[in-house]
Amino acid sequence: MPPRKLAAIFFVLCAMAGPAASQSQPVKKLTIASTRHADDDLEVTGMVAGLSARAVGYVSYAKLVALPQVTTTIPNDSNFAHQPSRGLRITGIPLEQLAKALGALPESDLIDALCTDRYRSHYPADYIAAHHPIFALKINGERPAQWAAKTHEYDPGPYFITHANFIPRDKFLTYLEQPQIPDNIMRLNFSTVAATYGPITPRGDFPTNPLVAQGFLIAKQNCLRCHFLNDVGGTKSGRDWRSLATWAREQPQFFERYVRDPQSVEPHAHMEGSPTYDGATLNALTAYFRTFTEEKPHK
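and the corresponding structure tokens:
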């Protein structure tokens, strides 16, 4: 077959491959600046090549959008509850590919995304492998701010994370794994599962107490987004782990109301409630938090 025909066939096949083709392309390493040049520069911290401990690096939107992109139509994303999300085309970078482009060190097995309101989402390696989160840069071909101005919708940018198809893995009692879909992201931090979840690992007889183990899983995936212990977790709520632990031990009914309907006990609370949690699910979460206040954990 003539070379030109072969080249033409190859071009067509590449075009048909679409987003998957871009994921297989070699990852271009980004240069991380030591100073901010624009308000929407992405902050980068943690275990990244060439970045010293506690230093903050910056990557521009222009450099991010120059990386190989994927485009997908998202079936459902609660950040776009007022917009039929089935018709939204999201363009961005698979989070795993972005980590490589930023030079994440091999020993880093967890990424956390910090938002402007101090909400924090966590992406351990197993979550990334299962759900393939996308670091979004465009909505329907436009920057989020431009799209929001035209549609009169909320601006989730300049960066947010979504999924092409999220299927929950963890389901027990009335708890179902929730997608990690933060918006208004200002920083990506590269760390480890041990450093992030170690401080909130339950005390005492955790390995032999299935109730505490279930509560720990819920706390890792949900509570850590808005609550914190020392340097771990989000600070959006302003309430630390010890406050929740004290409520769980001394005011368990108040604690359960706070989890189910935060505004019923704190009118100005920003946290979304979990009204579907039944008594057994709340007992698991209560048992977990009580391990941080008792010498002998509650069984």
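(Above: one complete record from the training split.) DSSP finds eleven helices and 13 strands in the chain.
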